[in-house]
Design brief:
By secondary structure, this protein is an alpha/beta fold. It has a domain of about 180 residues: Rossmann fold. The strands form 3 sheets. It has a 7-stranded parallel β-sheet, sandwiched between helices. Strand 4, helix 3 and strand 5 form a beta-alpha-beta unit. Helix 2 packs across helix 6, helix 3 runs parallel beside helix 4 and helix 7 packs parallel to helix 10. It is globular. About 40% of the residues are buried.
Length: about 325
């Protein structure tokens, strides 16, 4: 019997950008999938006999994992949206701990965690929460894979409507200080599923980029101006605006949780304005695209062309924060 077909996989965070892609890919490859959703979420996928959606109340007032079925593999795509300290501790650490406790009691075969490459140099609340859970997973005794992807295609699409409307592309500094190896949701989903099947991915933390070369924000801007046929207009913003805003708000943050969360969001913006989403070489003190493993064949340029040809597919970023 084909073990791939008989495996039962639970995907937590199944309604998210990557979670939904993972569910879709699992179904295509013949797995039986339990897709775990929060009560406020939904799964935008067609009916499939191998798919069971579980809408659960994940509040701490009760143990939501008591409602989970027996499975062979757990894939966690859980992640905080805002990056605030309270949400990160609740989701990135707390809910994942609940899931890990369930996995240990159930004696599952494998726990795959979708994390982020930016945890290499932790300066933010959500990064510390993720690393705290990494330690628990590694010491749990379960077979695990921790996937640390670079920037997602969707996270690099937030300025498309600006370009379409003839506005400037906004970059911090020169726009060439940071780089990434963008990865598509399809390639990342394939990689996550490979972690189940292939021993070379087991019991490891796995930095991951898409196919090169590494791109700067200026590279992204030039692609968009060419693809959408707009005159090249780039506006440079000093990353110091984050420092000034943080200094201004910190005194008020002592008295307001909402302002404290805004300060953390500014710190996140500052981090992404200054740090590359590549493997960090601590010996030389810099990011290195050559040391960042590459996977897949989808290119950001082709993705942008798809959005040009199908405007309805341009993602609505809203207030969601994508940590890639």
């Amino acid at each position: 019997m084909d073990s791939k077909v008989t495996k039962r996989v639970l995907v937590a965070g199944a309604s998210g950008y990557i979670g939904q892609a993972v569910v879709r890919q699992l179904l295509q490859e013949g797995y039986f999938v339990y897709a775990v959703l929060r009560q406020s979420s939904k799964l935008d996928l067609p009916h499939n006999d191998n798919l069971c959606a579980l809408t659960l109340d994940m509040e701490k007032k009760h143990l939501w994992t008591d409602q989970l079925p027996e499975v062979d593999v757990v894939i966690s795509c859980l992640a905080s949206r805002s990056g605030s300290a309270s949400e990160a501790n609740y989701v990135d650490y707390g809910l994942n701990c609940d899931l890990l406790n369930f996995a240990c009691k159930s004696k599952i075969e494998h726990f795959v965690l979708l994390s982020a490459i930016c945890v290499q140099r932790p300066k933010l609340a959500f990064q510390r929460a993720k690393l705290k859970f990494h330690s628990k997973l590694i010491s749990s005794g379960l077979r695990f894979s921790i996937v640390l992807p670079t920037a997602y295609f969707k996270s690099l699409s937030g300025q498309i409507n600006r370009i379409k409307n003839g506005k400037s592309f906004l970059v911090f500094g020169s726009g060439e200080e940071t780089r990434s190896l963008p990865i598509s949701e399809v390639d990342l989903a394939r990689y996550v599923i490979n972690c189940i099947r292939y021993e070379k991915y087991w019991n490891k933390s796995l930095p991951l980029g898409g196919p090169g070369p590494a791109l700067t924000p200026i590279d992204q801007a030039e692609m968009l101006f060419e693809i959408f046929g707009k005159p090249k207009k780039i506006k440079h913003i000093s990353p110091r605006v984050f420092d000034l805003a943080i200094v201004f708000l910190i005194p008020f943050a002592l008295f307001s949780q909402k302002i404290k969360d805004k300060v953390e969001l500014l710190k996140i913006g500052k981090y992404y304005a200054r740090e590359s989403m590549l493997v960090y070489d601590a010996e030389v003190g810099s990011y290195d695209a050559n040391k960042t493993p590459q996977f897949g064949d989808s290119l950001l340029y082709d993705y942008y062309c798809t959005l040009r040809d199908d405007p309805q597919s341009i993602p609505n970023m809203g207030s969601q924060k994508l940590f890639g």
